[in-house]
Amino acid sequence: MDKSSNRAEEVSKDLIPGLPPELAMECLVRVPYQFQSAMRSVCRSWRSLLSDSSFIRERRRCGKAELLLCLVQPFSPPNTASKAVGDTETPLGVEEKGEKRASSTPRFGLSVYNATMATWNRVAFPQQQIPLFCECVAVQDAGKILLIGGWDPETLQPVKDVYVLEGSGRRWRRGAPMKESRSFFACASVGPTKVYVAGGHDEQKNALRSAEVYDVEKDEWSTIPSMAEGRDECQGFSMGTGLGGFCVLSGYATESQGRFRQDGEVYDPMTKSWSRIENVWPFPDTSPRGRTITAGDTRGSSRLRCFSTDRELQSNSQWESRDGWRKWKLDVEVIQLPASGSSVYVGSSGGESVIMIGGRRESEGAMMKTTEEKNAGNWSHVNDISFGFSTLPFSHASIYV
């Protein structure tokens, strides 16, 4: 039994006086997520239980966990700046109160769509705003949401900053900074506790080859070998399952900005080395960001879905790509988007592909979804996006709470 299980068993002994621990746990995991902030104030044992990642696992086992889609997106005009909340506890999903401020620089926030309850909210942040173009990544087993890198809102320079929000959504904290400032980089959670980053660009807009890995439990960054190529505006994802690889898809070199590479590189944590995988991105004029969904299959194998509005590409809709050592394999498929000509962003949430369709005005926008297993071309309408949340995100992550 792991440490978190022992801890959960210990705190469950006195959860509700007069009830056996098992029955008390059955009661508490069924309380909707929106009330968990108040639950933490009841007693020390409840606070300890809700702070433990095993509580979320138990909610998932009982089918009571709620799915949150977290989106790094610019505020819709007029721009909104939140008031600082300091170190006070701010529940995930509580909309921040702010004041209007005109600015030519976009202002970014972390928005949350609760797919279970079909509600939209914005997360309060200790600073006036989160870093522009930061990467959002969720580590489900650790119950954490991370915001990494991006631009400083004032200087517009890449940063090393890391902000961590517990899955219980009560408090932001500063994580250990990256070893190198970067933005527009590849980022992905691989395994239960590791987050990998690679590529992007530095303060001089030079494409980076460097890469590093963050241990969420230890709050430590370590440098890993650099990629063979510098890759700006690349996309990262996990390959395979378990201790799989970290794939950095496409991107471009400093001297060829805007011309996206067709290849990618995969880092193997076991051998601590990179290998190249060819012919995985067929759109030289388009960034893979917001256009790709991946799903792990077996060790070393993944499915990559490229979403496109170009019908001419459908004639070559499926192919297979491997690295030179034939260790990593991608089954690639092009999926026709249902909104040709519209501004769209495709993400993954809870085993489904989700498409956000941006509107011309703040009150416009829609969300659609399709399964990632079968009938991927059959899209169904989820809902119209709430007022103030229709701008297309830069990055996203989903987590069960």
UniProtKB/TrEMBL annotation:
It comes from Brassica campestris (Field mustard). One of its GO terms (cellular component) is cytosol. Residues 80-103 are annotated as: Disordered. It comes from the Eukaryota. Gene3D superfamilies: 1.20.1280.50, Kelch-type beta propeller. This is F-box domain-containing protein. PANTHER family: F-BOX DOMAIN-CONTAINING PROTEIN, OS02G0208700 PROTEIN. Transmembrane segments: none annotated. Residues 19-59 form the F-box domain. GO terms for biological process: negative regulation of cytokinin-activated signaling pathway; regulation of phenylpropanoid metabolic process.
